[in-house]
Amino acid sequence: MTKRLTIAIYDFTDCEGCEVVLSTLKENLLALEDRFDIVNWRLAQDACKDGPYDVTIIEGTPVTGDEIALLKELREKSGAIVALGACASIAGIPGIMDKGEREKWYKKIYGPEYKPIGVDSLPLAAYVRVEHMIHGCPVNAGELVRTIEELASGKKPKYRDYSVCFDCKEAGNTCRLLNDKICFGPITQGGCKAVCISGGSPCYGCFGLREDANIDGLVRILRWASSPKEIRGHLKIFFNHIPEYKDAFESALKRGRTKRP
Amino acid sequence: MKNIYEPVTAEIVKVERQSKDVLLFRLRSKGGVPFGTPKRGMHFTPGQFMLAGVWGYGEAPFGIASDPYETEYIELVVRRVGDVTGAMHLLEKGDTMTLRGPYGNGYPLEFFKGSDVILITGGSGIPPIASLIRYIIHNRKDFGMVHLVYGAKTSAGLLMKREISKWKRKIDVTLTVDGPECDWKGKCGFVSDCLTDIKVNPANTVVAMCGPGPMVDSIEQLVNPMGISDRKIFISMERRMQCGVGRCQHCVTGRKYVCTDGPVFNLDEIDRNWD
Amino acid sequence: MWCIKTSEKEKLLTALKGAYDFRDVSSSDLPPKKLFFPEREITFTHLVKDGSVTTPPPPRKFVLYGLSLRDLEAITCLDEIMSAPEKDYYYFRRRRRALLIGVTGEAFDVPPGGDIIISSIDADTSKLLSVTEKGERAIKKHLPRLKKSKSPQAVPVKNDTMPDLRNLLMDAELLKVAVEWSWHGYKKLWEKLSRECLGCGICTYVCPLCHCFAAEDSVALSGDEAVRCRRWDACTLPVFARLGGGEDMHPGLRERYYNWFYHKFVRGYLEFGRSECVACGRCQRDCPARIDIEAVLLDIVSAYSKSAQRRRRYR
Q: Which residues of chain A neighbour C289 with C-beta distances below 8 Å?
């Protein structure tokens, strides 16, 4: 139960905010260094040992050919791959890009000479097997510590089985949906402490879909007060990047509007 | 006020491998069975269970496998499936585990007395049945014909083989594996196939069962042809639970709680559950 | 019983605020249960180095102020639930340290619970009722010169939250029979509700009587200590009734949402002789899918009654 594991921490295209959460864990970071050998972490240390690694934590979305190749190489070298943050787990902010529009914007922003290196923006799991995903944009420090604790104590890391609504009620918020405001809390995995809703923002679902989420049921409610365009606009931030999620929402939106009770 | 959730610490005095993913733990605390004073010589009723745990990993229910008359220790059989059992599998002799219990009702021993008993189980469902067999052997003259039918996918999945071979002197035993194996001398096929071979007097027979979900689900097809009344068929049910005292709501089945009303129910009770 | 002026009431509250931790829950979204059974609490801490096991210290004595009559009733009911078959250690060590003060403008015959109830009669006068000895002692200690008065009549104001459900609860036996019948007898309803319910768990969190919980164990990153924690769970969530091997005893929202009703109106009735509901209205107010729980229960009872009539005719 106390075997020292080797950890590598890599990042692809992203804002590095989740690594900032990791590097500001204070005493927990010290404990982490005590329990694990962090043998490769570009952002925080000089030492960069080549694999194999017991656990590789990857932040960010692989968008270039090089990043995708490195990801596949890391898969070979790693006992387990853990996605850190929404970019790695559900393609996050890079995933917002519209592939069809890409050429146009390249030309407009970088000029006709620019040779694009971006291939696509898909989550890690689109390319390799991922053992666990630490959700969030950025990740919640408490959930991050919990996951590392579970890894350190030889458990299989677990996803939260409750929705954001638990965190939201615990935070004492009034339900946005009851005020006809868009919110993806009921279908999103909990653990975030409902920081967005407490701060007056909607839940965009950065923690990913929770198990058995009733998407049809939520869209039915959202449609009472919001247009499909508005709903799609909110979906675009996080829920559009995984085909299964997108399809589920689109088919729910096709059902049309029901009468409000 | 007593903290009903506080477990006792029990020492592991023996670990015995039963199969690739199953270990048997012999546990004692303060020099003996880790709970209460015995009633009529018994420390618990066969069919009762313990909530055993490892700090930091949680607790889970386990049917007690040992002899209820045993005063020195209790035995639990643990299949590795999740965090708690995974942590238990790393424990060795001399390490400790936590224990709470015994909980639940156990098999209705007084009701069984004077009857023929058919014991049906599969895979890792053997522990409570093992305890019941030990009780029966201890009071052998109170019972008529006793027949254990025990099945597993493979012969390696049959647990407590050494004990079973000892029991064979006192009760009838049929062991069966799902598919044929070259060095297996027992029966092949499902438990249900073996039941048709047993001659029973339905009016004077009780059935005690503890098995994996699919076996319990098919119990009616299994036992109906034997003509035994639903109220004489007793099944130990499996549920996950957090409290053991009928509060956390995880183990509910219809009107009942598996932890306090069960885990042993008769088939008639189970049939009436909506879930 | 006393008749007090607002100034005396203020004096009492000021004195109580000085003597106790004072929690005013009159405007809280979450039910008062959270003061005795918090969303999360550490139940045990185990130190690896010496094997010691400790429970965190209990809270200071506190006043729970602003409870409605229905909340008082709910606490009375939850006390009973948490006592069977043995007292819940964590609940009662908080409960015993609490002085419950109900505040109401409603009339009542029998106080539904609490230690003290303050009912307002008019703008400047309130009726002060000590329900328990603990309440009486607190009043005498902090308002020592108060003279007992003859029973003054509080202005009878009716609570209009879920009046129909309130009526239904009077016949808990009928509710029990009807809800139990509805699983097979009114499948269409549960089919419909399973599409509408989001399974978010909010109804269970805001219910003053829902009390299911999950235990969570963790080993600190340092490896030095292990912590066991219990937190509110919700029977509408997917993992709630799943077995170790993966089989789910309540595989869909239909089973999960029905189980919530079943517990309150069937199993709860069988255990405690009453529905586990006080018609406080929170679940209905806070349901994001706007499921009208009162209407659902009325619908079930009416469908059951019709079906029962039909069956009688057949006989």
A: 217, 220-221
